[in-house]
Amino acid sequence: MTARAQGFAAGLVVGMMLAGGYALARAAMPGEAQPGVKSTSTVVLENDKVRVKDVTFPPGVLDTGMHTHDLAHVGVILTKGSLVFTDPDGKAETVAFEAGSVGFRGANATHQVANPGPGPMRVIEVELK
For the CA atoms of 14, 18, 21, 27, what is the dihedral angle to 10 degrees? Predict the structure, then answer.
């Protein structure tokens, strides 16, 4: 097994989430919003059992917009930082993560996600079909 495949396999054991389009024009100062800058989501593996995405949240108070995850999913945090999860009722929760943290959300989870930190947050999201 290649080092890349081993790293990917290790990443499947850990977790967190998300999606969007990406255009990082400049580095953000902590807490500074950047209009037009969004998260990226790239499908890196898909079969009849799972869809695996590599998601990056750029720094600054940016969000993904309200969205619903149709599938249950496991998220693997690759970089240390915090994410703010806001539910449809406006309740926001800031969660601090260490690299290697793992999380799970059931199907039909609706929220928006923002990265208030000074650096990008990267997550491997494993959707269970």
Answer: -70
Q: At 43, which CATH number? A: 2.60.120.10
- Indicate the number of domains in the chain: 1
pLDDT (tens, 9 = 90+) of the chain, 129 residues, equals: 565 544 443 343 333 333 333 333 333 344 444 556 788 999 999 999 999 999 999 988 777 889 999 999 999 999 999 999 999 999 999 999 999 999 999 999 999 999 999 999 999 999 999
Q: Which domain holds residue 120?
A: 3-128
Name the pairing type of β-strands 81-86 and 92-97.
Answer: antiparallel
Q: Alpha-carbon distance 29 to 41, whole Å?
A: 23
Amino acid at position 8, single letter: F
